[in-house]
Amino acid sequence: MYYLNGDYYELTLKQKLSYFFISLTIISFGNGLSIAAAMGAAPWSAAAVNLSNITHLPTMLFLAIEAIFAAAVNLLLVDHIDWHRAAGNMVFGLLFSVFVAEFANFFQPFIVGLPLIIKILIDLIGIWAIGVGISIIQRTNFVMHPLDGLTNLARFKFFHGSAPLGQISNFIVAVSISLVCWLVSGKILGYGIGTLYCFFLQGNNIAWGDQHLFKHLLHIDPTKL
């Protein structure tokens, strides 16, 4: 739904699809940058990297598994199950897994030899881009990555609409997975300044996107759909 010139309107399918691909590209781009910079990925991406390290299976596989896990939790948290939306969220999550891997593989050769401060800056830009993309897709209320859907549900169901608290509650699970991997392997990968920035400030990035990008798009409480 969006607000324009004093009236409320439902988004058309064409508009929803446009915002869908804009969001998917921005979120995947940001994750790819942060993984390639290796200065600290978003917590769920870092969890996938650590699971890949201890199992020697592709990171993309665990990104997909995380999407499936989050989709299942989302179904448990809503009062009414919209199977079409759930299927769409899974499509988003699986496309995201592929896009992130492709972006990371593309950027890595260009970033690996850069000075440390430039890598940190690239990483922070990537994390910021993820938050901006999440803001857009949540307000479009079409389909989104199941993990972002989980954040949105937690935001309104448990934290009175607070984006920062909803995001942190989501990330605690991802960090716990990485800590278990660290206990198994003796090392932890994908963590750094970017992860800290993401953990504590990603909710603020989402809130910033709500206020400054596509401002006509409105947030709808997913627990009331």
TrEMBL record:
Q: Please give the InterPro entries that the UniProt record associates with this protein.
A: YczE/YyaS-like (IPR038750)
Q: Does the keyword Transmembrane helix apply?
A: yes
- Which portions of this protein are annotated as coiled-coil regions? none
Q: Which UniProt keywords apply?
A: Membrane, Transmembrane, Transmembrane helix
The residues that cross the membrane are: 20-40, 60-78, 90-111, 117-137, 158-182
Top-level taxon:
Bacteria
Q: What is this protein called?
A: YitT family protein
What organism is this sequence from? Oenococcus sicerae
